[in-house]
Amino acid sequence: xxxxxxxxxxxxxxxxxxxxxxxxxxxxxxxxxxxxxxxxxxxxxxxxxxxxxxxxxxxxxxxxxxxxxxxxxxxxxxxxxxxxxxxxxxxxxxxxxxxxxxxxxxxxxxxxxxxxxxxxxxxxxxxxxxxxxxxxxxxxxxxxxxxxxxxxxxxxxxxxxxxxxxxxxxxxxxxxxxxxxxxxxxxxxxxxxxxxxxxxxxxxxxxxxxxxxxxxxxxxxxxxxxxxxxxxxxxxxxxxxxxxxxxxxxxxxxxxxxxxxxxxxxxxxxxxxxxxxxxxxxxxxxxx
Length: 288
Description:
This protein is an alpha+beta fold and 288 residues long. It has two domains: 2-67, no CATH class; 80-286, Fumarylacetoacetate hydrolase, domain 2 (Alpha-Beta Complex). It has helices at 25-28, 36-42, 44-55, 88-93, 166-169, 227-237; strands at 2-6, 13-18, 21-24, 62-64, 80-84, 103-106, 112-114, 119-121, 128-129, 132-138, 154-161, 164-165, 185-187, 190-192, 205-210, 213-219, 245-247, 269-274, 278-286. The strands form five sheets. A five-stranded antiparallel β-sheet has the order 4-3-2-1-14. It has a five-stranded mixed β-sheet with strand order 6-5-17-10-11, with no helix packed on it. Strands 8-19-18-15-16 form a five-stranded mixed β-sheet, with no helix packed on it.
């Protein structure tokens, strides 16, 4: 199933994407969860009820996908965990050896933006970089989850562009400030359930484009730490909870490694694509 949140007059609503249409879940059955997070928290049975409801939805519940405005799939994740240097070639282009343990940092909700919303080029720095990332959403929470059970805890997969303000990222050995400027974290637009993808979303082409020019082109099968292993590692020291979001890292081809660097600028359009999931696109707009 392909799920999304979209803007509506009474606030964001949960929808199921079917080809070029979106079925409004609340319009199909008002008793169903009304947000992605509520659906996740309601468990697998609720997902089955959504599937049944949208099959019988009337015309009043259906909208054209092109006419809806995407909202963040999860507006304020309890935890948004990012994995750095998780593709060997990307680690090396930044001057690092592939890690034996993943580099981890966090994103704050104030940095996140929905698909098609502006990504903000800050006044204080013009070193704005893109990072295409396969991202997963936790469905069933837990602690000390073994790798062979890790995928049982994944609700679905989405897209993230870990837009980075590189100069700020380099100010200290940890990257928090360069990764959390307001309006620099595009997420979405859809969350795809695991049954529609290969196990662990492995073996999928992942690309980024700036103004139609391909900058990154790799495969999620090249992840050093795959989805199940990341669930194991993260749950060793924290309780994973429904709705937590994990971005798995970016492949080689980022702007700072180009000669000269190919920073994004105001007026550009950036897109992230993962095979089987879709496209996350955003314009770049200068901070006012």
